[in-house]
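CORE FACILITY INTAKE
Project code: CF-77B
Contact: R.S. (postdoc)
Sample description: multi-component assembly, two entities in total
Requested service: structural model of the whole complex
Turnaround: standard
Below are the sequence entries exactly as provided by the requester. Do not edit them.
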Amino acid sequence: MSRNDDWKTALVGAMLACAAAHGYAQVGAVAGSLDRDAATSLVTRSWAVRVPGVDKVVFRGGVNHDTAGMGAGTMMYPAPSPVGFLAALITHGVLNAGFREKQKNQLQANADLILAPFEPVLAGFTNQRLLEAARQRLPAERATRLLNPNEPAGGDWLVEIAPVFSMTQDRRALVLDNAVRIFAPGPSPVVYAQTVRVVSAPLRPAQAVAAATEPAPVADDEFVKTWSADQGQKLIDESISLLAQSLEIALAESGGPATDDKTPHRTFRYPEGGSEKMERAQLVSESCGRRLIRTLRGWLMSVPSDDTIGDRCALPSAAAASAAQ
Amino acid sequence: MNFRSLVVGTVACVLLVLTGCATKPQLPVPMNKAALSAQSTRVGVAMTPLPKVDTFFPGASCLLCLGAASVANSSLTTYTKALTHEDLPKLKQAVAELVRQRGAVPVMITEDVKPDAFPDRSVGAEGGFARKDYSAMQKKYGIDKLLLVDVSMLGFERTYASYFPTSDPKAMLRGSAALIDLKTHALEWYQPLAITRASDGAWDEPPKFPGLSNAYFQVIELTKDEVLKSLKP
């Protein structure tokens, strides 16, 4: 592996860590809205989005950790002496931690197998192409220009993103986790940070597939066919749509949070592929068959309201709300 | 005492120790569709007292191990105590409504039913029958059947192998839901509740543990779903 490859691998790792863990969310919870809001309204800002340094769009298989772990057990430590006992204890701890990490990696590797039929499409799907298409779907007041990874933003508000896509194990939906950071013009620390998750509306199965109890072979899988048709047009188009939605949500939210501590939390249910998922959150807005909610982590999530609707509008209602500001 | 008697006696003792205290777990009993369809059947709907939300560390079995586990998870334990039962106590109302929809007459029992306060049944500890004698409820409330939701453990579980965790903490609920014919003590429905949910992403996010909190509220919702789905007409 070349040094360049090392660098890219590290960058992908950092993107995954940012999106999956809490780093960005915690910064976002602290940063909240932009401090310079009074100086520049959202409508008059000019935006520049930096293309992520990693070339290819990051895709993963959706993974479930409900069954992860090794279960309870008892360890009998050989203890010929206090030093021997301590050595046994340390050895057990090291082996145990290693095994757990290996198990998590294995779970992810198994989950990623779901993407195998799409490798030819994903191999040529770059972040440059993704962002170029996504920015064209933003409303006029969010017009953005693209920056190369190290290009300065000049007088524009700089937007850095780290999108990571997941496909559900039933191949019926895509989930985007996009860690977004915004910098004011000029030398500036991060003034806004947020992780936005967007869940696509599920693909509808044909009657025969809905009634089937066994998953179809990949060659016969109607969802593989749907995503892959026309050189993966549906997969690419849905990814672009999710990214555009996440950008619109983040840019709109950066003007001021739509919820406060008084907004009640409740448990929302939504379809993620063929499964029903739940999230404890505050309702931010609801329209176009989608809900925008704020999770306990402070992340923003755009989810289908139910499994019959989900994409009636090109963008969630946060766009309309913020455009009116 | 000859040697043979000694061996037989020892084997008998060992078998008694190994099997004497074991209670066969009650297997699920599917809902008897006729059980709630008779219009004159009065069904008491009750719940056991909800346990306090807590942390559990199975596998940390020695005193020192348990101490180490408690210290290592102290911030989670502290936070756990602030969690509420949400709308779990209202599950009774939803159950009663479905009992009514199925044709029987629901009788809401507002007091908490404590199984330990009822006598063990001298016979019928075999599968398919209640282990406690709830006949007193029949007389007190004028009911024919008792639908009892029993939540025995609620909170977060992290498995251990002595001193070391073998999993991340997960939200969990343990318990059962049962429909008992108070004349025969037969279980006309028995649904064990063993629901576990992991945090989506990182779990170690003190002080409010949003990932685990989200999993906790999912567990409460899933429990309600699990109880209600068998009762739907």
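Facility notes:
- The beta strands of chain A are 47-50, 58-61, 144-147, 157-167, 174-183, 190-199, 265-272, 275-287, 290-295, 300-304.
- Helices of chain A lie at 3-20, 23-31, 82-112, 119-123, 127-135, 207-211, 222-253, 317-323.
Invoice: internal transfer
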